[in-house]
Amino acid sequence: MNVALRWSPENLRKAKKQLGVAAFRPGQAELIEAVMNGRDALGILPTGGGKSLCYQLPALFLPHAVVVVSPLIALMKDQQDKLEDRSIAVAKLDSTLSTQDERDMIDEIRQGTPELIYVTPERLEREETLAMLQRTGVSLIVVDEAHCVSQWGHDFRPAYLSIRDAVRRLGKPPVLALTATAPPDVARDIVRQLDIRTAVIIDAGNYRDNLIYEIRRTVNDLEKDRCLMELLAGQLRGGPGLVYAATIREAKALFERLRQRGLPVGLYHGKMRATDRHKTQQEFMDNRVPLVVATKAFGLGIDKRDLRVVVHYSLPDSLESYVQETGRAGRDGKTAWAVLLYRLEDRRVQAYFLGGKYPRREDCADVYRALAEEQRHGNKGLTLIKMAAATSLPVDKVKVVVALLDAMGILRRGRRLKLARAFVDEDEFGRYLEEYEQRHKSDQDKLEVMMKYGQTTECRVRYISRYFGNELPRDCGRCDNCRTDAGQRTVDVRELQAGV
Ligand SMILES: [Zn+2]
């Protein structure tokens, strides 16, 4: 049973000990104090900056459970194990549980046992989850990866938009929103979308002084490979490394090439079977495989403190993603590298990739109309083929539209397509789509910022910090640009010719 302790210096010391914490990192003490005083708060803490302590510690003192909304709790096993080792009761509700496990979990929650309840935003939307939490009481709601609530963030997730309703239904307990990366416009949007306008905002910056940011310019993939081999064989020999690829196809091809050269390498991407993904992850964590080629699917919930290098084989889609992914290196505080293999042509690949995500508005409206019609008649939904017939669109195009509407939470895919969200009229549907199109523009802007990062001759850390709203008092002194004399910093002539 979760019994509230008194918040005294002595109890705080005991709690820190129970959680294995010697000293607070920047921002932690302020955030903990805010939520313990019943305030809403937004914490922007660098990856590895100790976000989880900001709610794990209060959980030991608060009378009711702390609910943590997290996008991928299936991957949080590691954190759960650590807490349970320290005798802190944790429950999690996500789609990976067996029926029996889920029933047990719900029983425990009803008895008020867990101090922390991890839940996906989709699960929190459900009526039965809300009803259960209403009965047991909630002392604090934590929104992890809070940038997912913002359409201007780099990982928008529609279910995050219903968190504010859940907070209201649960009697408005304090909300603690946490993210590693939020430039000022995203931070403002988070506060607005979660309706925590008077929140205490703590920005601990994205600056970690053991990370060395570097760009390696390359002209083609052959040279990229050579550069990567050189990196892996040189200063980083022996240290665990992570190589991010932009697409699954690229990840697979690169993995094969590295394996053929005899490197002990693992592969990780979102389309692999869960057991294979888990195997790669486990071998990497245990140092049996020191190198992993991955897509951005890899990372959330993975805490490998001695990661020495994060290489991006292709340009990431935003500086937010880049900072988040590179921030996984060097969490042990020792020197680590963040290297981007930069090639002009990357932009076309990425721009193409982004362009493909947004089908025409009329096509979306046709698919929506067909489903709404189907629902009005009380039918079971449409197969892809029937949808193609109903809208006179080619099946391939229907697939693209369906994927988009699914991502937007408008329909559900399965054997048959069904409407998941109804709009009052087509105007409302149109406005919803329009917001998505604005995101398209926002995605292009983010890519632009990333491109400029590749080209800048100023301190890389200064560039990153400014984007996140912090002006550094001085250059980092360690990035590739800082190590090159100002007079010698040059822009590749091909970039000037290409006019980027
Ligand atoms: Zn620098």
Describe this structure in words.
- By secondary structure, the chain is of the alpha/beta class.
- The protein is 44% helix and 13% strand.
- The chain folds into three domains: 9-203, 3-Layer(aba) Sandwich (Rossmann fold), CATH 3.40.50; 211-352, P-loop containing nucleotide triphosphate hydrolases (Rossmann fold); 361-440, Orthogonal Bundle (Arc Repressor Mutant, subunit A), CATH 1.10.10.
- The chain has helices at 9-18, 28-36, 53-61, 77-85, 99-110, 121-125, 127-136, 163-169, 184-193, 221-233, 248-260, 274-285, 319-326, 346-355, 361-376, 384-391, 395-407, 426-455, 460-467, 480-483, 493-498; strands at residues 41-44, 65-69, 90-93, 116-119, 138-143, 175-179, 200-203, 211-217, 241-244, 265-268, 291-294, 309-312, 336-342, 411-412, 418-419.
- The chain has a seven-stranded parallel beta sheet with strand order 3-4-2-5-6-1-7, with helices on both faces.
- α15 packs across α17.
- The chain is globular, with a radius of gyration of 24 Å.
- Bound molecules: zinc ion (ZN).
- Residues 459-461, 475-476, 478-479, 481-482 line the site of zinc ion (ZN).
